[in-house]
Amino acid sequence: MVRVVVAGGGLAGVSVCRDLRARGFEGELVLLDREAGPPYDRPPLSKQLLRGAAEPADVVLPDGERLGEFGVDHRRGVTVTGLTEHAVLLAGGGEVPFDGAVIATGAAARRVPGQPDIEGVCALRTLDDALALRENLATAGNLVVIGGGFIGLEVAATAVALGITTTVVERDPVPLAPAIGPVAGGWMTELHRARGVRFACGAEVVGFTVDGGRVRGVDLADGEHLPADVVVVGVGAAPVTGWLTGSPVPVADGVVCDSGLRAAPRIYAAGDVARWAHPLFGSIRAEHWTTAVDHARTVATNLVAELETGAGGGKEAAEVPYFWTDQYDVKLQLAGWAGGHDRCEVVEDGRALLYGREDRLVAALAINRPAFVARHRRAIAAGTSWREATEAARR
Ligand code: FAD
């Protein structure tokens, strides 16, 4: 029987299993994941779960509960350590041979230099991370968040609502600017300042103060000391590709794939770990929930076709990326790819932004304006020019 092995049982891996069956794949389907529990969703970890409005059972992926129904051999607590043209290698020495494979090992939280593994220093990527952070916040008086990215700011929003004195340390002059530019980054910073979050921008953490096995604060490069009984390190995530060294797939900040997410013959990648040739935006890697789901459809279509005919399925991963973040009562949404934009314009009474590059609309961002973002996602897919998009938005 033909066998497909999916490495990584997060959103992308589980969605690939579902979509392979939906496209008529009747062979053996093996899903490998190092976590022991059921597959879960990550966005609620920094939102509902952290503030106590959800429990672990609430964040289980609905399709994760249907893996038996899909006829998936779901092996938990299994770490993949290598990949050949025909087999996935496992920690402990075993291997699982395959006819087709999907790499869906996602991303892992980055660390800062000198980060100690002690009580009170927390990351936020896994369910265990979120539960540990929630427990730490329950008795915290002072929180320092290292990194003013989306996850760091979501944590800050939850913490100030809990009455915790919160400082965000950000290396760039404006939080979120690398992702969405200084204008929208400035909007979000002001939102947090108005709720009481303090920012140390253009600042770098150079050391941690430790006492009795617990963090007591951080030291900044300019000599300032910030007291903290909890420190969250939110400096982004790196694709989990270390296990692919020496494998047939190319790796460069992600598994390098063509526009159909194929990395090597019969080997595909999906989700946070995939860097692919987007037909509109070139080589990108998107750590977005929707991208993982979109990728799964493309991978399933192309892998089923390749297993049946020996040729690719011809489907491109061409969906316009989409991302959201929830902070306080604000839902910020972004459609498109703002990286590398060379112009932007504020529209919708200062609640939305359009981004352009070389006279083309490449991204649209808005605060609490879902219809605006959905409309512009379609406009970006249609190849709308910058002039056409801005004139329509000014009307
Ligand atoms: P992952 O979810 O990381 O899954 C990868 C899986 O592979 C994991 O289960 C892991 O255990 C497993 N794995 C890794 N290495 C190995 C190995 N060697 N052996 C076996 N198994 C392995 N996106 C949004 O668009 N909006 C949001 O508001 C938002 N909020 C987020 C909040 C948080 C706290 C986080 C962490 C992410 C958030 N995201 C959000 C991003 C979104 O959740 C990710 O894009 C999505 O989870 C990617 O799914 P994935 O399956 O590619 O990777």
Describe the structure.
The N and C termini lie far apart (60 Å). It is built from seven helices and 27 strands. The model has no long low-confidence stretch (mean pLDDT 97). The chain has helices spanning 11-22, 127-137, 150-161, 177-194, 289-309, 370-381, 386-394; strands spanning 3-7, 28-33, 72-76, 80-83, 87-90, 95-97, 100-103, 107-109, 121-122, 142-146, 165-170, 198-201, 205-211, 214-220, 225-227, 230-233, 237-239, 255-257, 262-264, 267-269, 274-278, 282-284, 322-327, 330-336, 343-347, 352-357, 360-367. A six-stranded mixed sheet has the order 3-2-1-7-20-19, covered by helices on one side. Strands 9-16-10-11-12 form a five-stranded parallel sheet, with helices on one face. By secondary structure, it is α/β, with parallel strands linked by helices. It has three domains: 3-108 and 237-309, FAD/NAD(P)-binding domain (3-Layer(bba) Sandwich), CATH 3.50.50; 111-233, FAD/NAD(P)-binding domain (3-Layer(bba) Sandwich); 329-394, 2-Layer Sandwich (Enolase-like, domain 1), CATH 3.30.390.30. α1 crosses α5 (289-309). The site of flavin-adenine dinucleotide has 36 residues, from α1, β2, α5 and β23.
